[in-house]
Amino acid sequence: MIPNLGMKRANINTAVSFVLLVGLSAAFILPLFWMITTSLKPIDQLLLDPPVWIPSPLEFDNYPVALEEQPFLQYLGNSLQIGVAAVIGALISNSLVAYGFSRVEWKGRDAVFVLVLSTLMLPYHVVMIPLFVTFSKIGWVNTWLPLIVPAWLGHPFFIFMLRQFMLGIPKELSEATRIDGGSEWILLTRVILPLCKPALATVALFQFIWSWNDFIGPLIYLNERSLYPMSLGLALYHNSQGITDFSILMAASTMAVAPIIIIFFFMQRVFIQGISLTGLKG
Amino acid sequence: MLTPRDRRELRKLGVGLVFISPWIVGFLALNLYPILASFYYSLTRYSPISSPRFIGFFNYEKLLYFDPLFIKALTNTLYFVVFAVPLGNMLALALAVLLNQKVKGLSLFRTLFYLPSILPLVATSIVWTWLLHPQYGAVSVIMAELGLPVISWFSDPQWAKPALIMMSMWGTGWMMLIYLAALQDVPQELYDVASLDGASLWRKFRHVTVPMISPIILFNTIVGLIGAFQYFTEAYVITEGGPGDATLFYSLYLFQNAFAYFKMGYASAMAWLLFLVILILTFFIFRSSAKRVYYHGN
Questions:
Q1: How do residues A209-238 score in pLDDT, each as one tens digit?
Q2: CATH, residue B173
Q3: What span, in angstroms and rounded, lies between the C-alpha atoms of B109 and B128?
Q4: Which of A88, A193, A197, B159 stands the most exposed, by the fewest C-beta atoms within 10 Å?
Q5: Among partner residues A101, A123, A256, which is closest to B275 by beta-carbon distance?
Q6: Which residue of B122, B174, B205, B219 is the best one to mutate when testing the A interface, meaning the one whose CB has the most A CBs within 10 A?
Q7: Does the beta carbon of A133 lie under 8 angstroms from any beta carbon of chain B?
Q8: Is residue A266 situated within a structural domain?
Q9: pLDDT per residue as tens digits for the range A152-164
């Protein structure tokens, strides 16, 4: 009798949870739904009371109009180039550093690693001004270098994640290669990295998203329109408009958001894995 | 003379340092030097066209005693932190608990809740401007439909901050994902035992779930706190600090001082005060939670 009762109660819980989840996900999807339908509204359906939830006919012309207003395709291309350059750097640097913190045993290693983690607490604003001063002195203002080069010097979050992953690989694998006379470099590139593919994919994805979404960096360092990434181009376009045609703005926003959504849907499993990989589970 | 053992140790140290050298360069150039330089700048009057002139702690005095906008920015930020961090945390935990009930469509729900947190903030900020448009925004329309009063959200000094807090809760998905991973690690036996004792759902949550995931609650609180203190993009894009300085947040005012008024020394003093506030708060949270956080395993 008791298990039966328990079963029934479990079913009710699941049903209640399901209903709540449906309601909450409707709330979560509303902003994106509103963005996409607005981007497809002809101007005469934009400001109706009550509003049109799904416009008819769909006005796809808002997209070409947005592209005429601002060189959004160029912005997207710039974002893509910055993102890819940062991803390559993040993959190389974080692999090397994580290897040094996990597969090589040296004195003081774990103390230095604590230092790595402690830099996560440093607010960007503390380093922002001196970095700006330094980068202006060496002529990096109005170039993409301040947005790309830091990614080539490792990030504590990625170092931590890759290190956890590498620590999970049995030591014997390294010993065997060392006995065969393989150098650490061969060990890293032929043995360890191939085993780290899921973690590396997570690094690549997160770095790409960070670069794509970065706003304050481009805002500080870039003042030539031809160099703008999407985030900056979109923000300045938005702030330069008084009363704006929101369907055009929503079309542009959709273009900024779409690449991330597409990547996310293709790589979902990697994303979810990434969170569990960080070893945050205690 | 070095023994062969010493030599081996030295070699290993060398190899280790070579591998971590990108981080060493980054640490020196992107962290250590800027921290020190920033402290030095904070003691100077410094605009990019002149060289820094030492003025002692004058910037700090001016900030704390003679700059009402600074106090305004600080209180705005504290308001945001006090509401956004706990509310975002609670929503994330609630979503994770619901998702952990083995419901149908788990991966679809998880995607919907997580997605907003990785979208570009500039784009989502513009979307929320339109979503909360007092006349034609979807939220206003729905609220009017439900007979609720019309709110001007971002253009009302009273409602601008709550609107931004609401938006930040929409971006809480990354926290939910971390909670979900933690919840899936809580051993089922603990719940079974609690059930045998006739524990209610709430008691199970309170006495099994919360203690078991307490390190993660602490982690999310601290990460959320550090992020909330640096809240910038949404305020820059949506409200530009307005209306009437209601959304002039700390980072925004710091940015304006540095890059609009070119008061680099003054802005550096602000940055250092922020750093201190974050360090002290984190320290106290760690201290006060020490007894309440349960680390299983080690």
A1: 999 999 999 999 999 999 999 999 999 888
A2: 1.10.3720.10
A3: 21
A4: A197
A5: A123
A6: B122
A7: yes
A8: yes
A9: 999 999 999 999 8
Is residue A137 domain-shared with residue A179, that is, in the same domain?
yes
Interface test with A, best of B11, B19, B180 (most A CBs within 10 A): B19
Give B158→chain A minimum CA distance, Å: 22
Q: Write out the residue range of the structural domain in which residue B117 sits.
A: 53-289
For residue B291, what are the CA distances in angstroms to A27, A96, A275, B29, B215? 37, 38, 27, 38, 11
A273 vs B201, higher pLDDT: B201
> How far apart are the CA of B110 and the nearest CA of chain A, in angstroms?
9
Per DSSP bridges, beta strands B53-54 and B44-45 are antiparallel
pLDDT at A27 over 60: yes
The answer to whether B39 touches B257, Cβ cutoff 8 Å, is no
The token pair at B215 is: 């390190």
- Inside any domain, residue B125: yes
Enter the ipTM.
0.91
- Residue B124 with chain A: CB contacts under 8 Å: 31, 253, 257
Query: What distance in Å separates the CA atoms of residue A9 and residue A4, rounded to the nearest whole number?
Result: 9
Strand-pairing partners, residue B44, are B54
Contact across the interface for B112 and A25, Cβ inside 8 Å: yes
Name the residue facing B120 among A112, A212, A219 (closest C-beta). A212
**Nearest beta carbon to residue A13 from set B101, B182, B240:** B101
pLDDT band of A280, cuts 50, 70, 90? very low
Number of domains, chain A: 2
Q: Do A21 and A110 share a structural domain?
A: no
CB contact under 8 A, B38 and A126: yes
Does B118 score more than 70 pLDDT?
yes
Neighbours of B81 (CB within 10 A): 22
Residue at A51 is within a domain: no
A221: closest CA of chain B, how far (Å) = 11
Domain total of chain B: 1
